[in-house]
Amino acid sequence: MKYRLAFALIALAALTRLLPHPNNFTPIGAIALFGAAYFNRQWLMLIVPFAALFLTDLFLNNVIYRELYHNQFTLITSWWIYAAFALVMLAGLGWFSKKVSGIRVLGASLSASAIFFLVTNFSVWAESSMYPKTAAGLAACYTAGIPFLGNTVLGDLFFSAAMFGVYEWAKRNNAAKV
To answer: What is the pLDDT of residues 7-34, one digit of tens each?
Structure first.
């Protein structure tokens, strides 16, 4: 099957979310970009990465973090994460509309980190009572999120390099039908 390796890489990357890892060092951005780059059928581009995110969220929120989140099906803020995920996919379509290259993967990964940072921190400001609903409150929220940005960037770069690198290596070496 044409997409076998792409499915496997997304599944493997998604499963790494279940392993202990530093805060925000996750494959979320890489999965969204990878799906946008390699699934030329739009329904696959949407369903496969979103399913990977949703299923791992379901397990994380209801098994691993069950006591912390009081048996919630999913977190309220997850919808903001899904919105960021969709925006990263759209950015990926732009970055990879012509071809996949190392420089494009780098640029797309950094864009994914920026999108995730902007959307998720905005969600904290908009949905919580931690910050006043003012420009100063929003600025304070973004400032408080900066320490987490480094791991987001590192995670996006690492997982993008791994996923895109393995896929392109396999394609060039005919190691799998891709």
So the answer is: 999 999 999 999 999 999 999 999 999 9
Give tens-digit pLDDT for 40-95.
888 888 899 989 998 988 888 777 766 776 656 555 557 888 999 999 999 999 99
Tokens read off for 62: 């209801």
**Taking the mean position of all CA atoms in its chain, how far away is CA 122?**
17
**In the predicted model, what is the mean pLDDT of residues 162-172?**
94
Domain boundaries in the chain? 4-173
- Helix axes 4-15 and 42-59, enclosed angle (nearest 10): 20
Give 36-105 as a DSSP string. HHH--SHHHHHHHHHHHHHHHHHHIIIIITTTTTTT-SS-TTHHHHHHHHHHHHHHHHHHTSS---HHHH
d(CA 113, CA 142): 14
Contact at 8 Å (CB) between 123 and 80?
Answer: yes
Q: Alpha-carbon torsion 66, 153, 95, 175, what sign?
A: negative
